What we know:
The chain is mostly helical and 282 residues long. The protein has helices spanning 3-6, 19-27, 30-39, 42-58, 62-85, 103-111, 115-129, 136-161, 167-190, 207-216, 219-230, 240-258, 264-281.
Amino acid sequence: MSGKDVRLLIDSGYRNYPSYYLYSRLRGRIERGIDFIRSVNTETSKEYIDKEHQWVYLNMNKKLREQLWPFFFYREIRKISEWLRVGELSHEFSRLELCLLSGNIKNIFLQTTDTTARLRRLEHILTGFSKGFKGIKEAFDKDGFRGFEEHIMNSFLSIMVVSYIYPVLRNLFRYLIDLRNVMSIYKHIRWGIDKMPPFISGGKIGLEDLRKAALSGDSSQVLQFTSNRLKTVVSKPTELETAFYIKVRNELRRDYLSTPLEPVVIIYYLWNLYLESILISS
Length: 282
């Protein structure tokens, strides 16, 4: 993990276990984890998933963290958005002890409740990693918390798909870009916004195809467009997100079955838990 990356996630020291040791343990947890998620309520499943992410991360050796840190940071972005909305964030705040964000990011929210100060300090840290994060405060000033969250997530995904990262992760992030672009089209049509939605480049669906779907002005055509792309049936807007997540799960499963002693087993295991919790709550 490079010096830049250390500022984004905790650096608690590396386990010296060989990678295949962790892979073997996770292969035995895949079905048990899903069974547990199915047996508990939503809040308990969230805490369980947080604990599993932390356990996996802390048991990864240096090489694995260098390969997979973007996957873990992607999930932590949601916590940054959540914390920005919170006034006073104490050390006892819900699930803070399970957070994988670096100390300097956590301290932004522990040391001040001023939103402007938080935004400036966060932008300073994130642009130290990549200039692609620039504009955080402007996004918040324009569109509030929603604009902030979209800017952080869109910037991160855009940065990752053009970076030298584990190919399985790049493929996952490209699907997530497609999801965000398709959802943007649907929202513009639903809300009657005439202006072309802003698209994130780097997904699997080309920008020209996205523009054509947006110009149709017909949400049913967007669903059909998505169904064709994912080779599945998406019959209503509430199924869009799940359809993309299932597509990612299926491709991860294919890669896992063909290469069971590769880092994909880690992503497949954790993604499975997350998807199962969504399927149960929907």
